[in-house]
Amino acid sequence: MVKSSRYFAQVRNRPDRQGIQDEWIERVIKKPDARSVQADGRIRLWGQVPEAGARYLRVVLLEDGKTVHNAFFDRGFREKE
In this model, does residue 61 exceed pLDDT 80? Predict the structure, then answer.
């Protein structure tokens, strides 16, 4: 597993997040379908997870680009065509 924040360790136990596998998070970090940087410097990455019904997983990294701060399925994400 990649390095993670204390916040991520806490929210990871929520029922809606328990099914998210480390492998999926690592895959999105290595090869995101989309990427943006927030005003606070955090990095948002999105990647489609075929094993999860082709939903998009959003992974938020801290400013260092290595520490996972959040990961969840983003219902509102639409890939740019």
Answer: yes
Contacts of 45 by beta carbon, 8 Å cutoff, 6+ apart: 28, 29, 32, 34, 35, 58, 59, 60, 61
Give the number of other Cβ atoms within 10 Å of residue 12's Cβ.
Answer: 16
Residue pLDDT, tens place only, 27-37: 999 999 999 99
Q: How far apart are CA 1 and CA 3, in angstroms?
A: 7
pTM: 0.91
Domain locations in the chain as residue ranges: 6-73
- Tell me the β-bridge partners of 60: 44, 70
Give the mean pLDDT of the chain.
Answer: 93
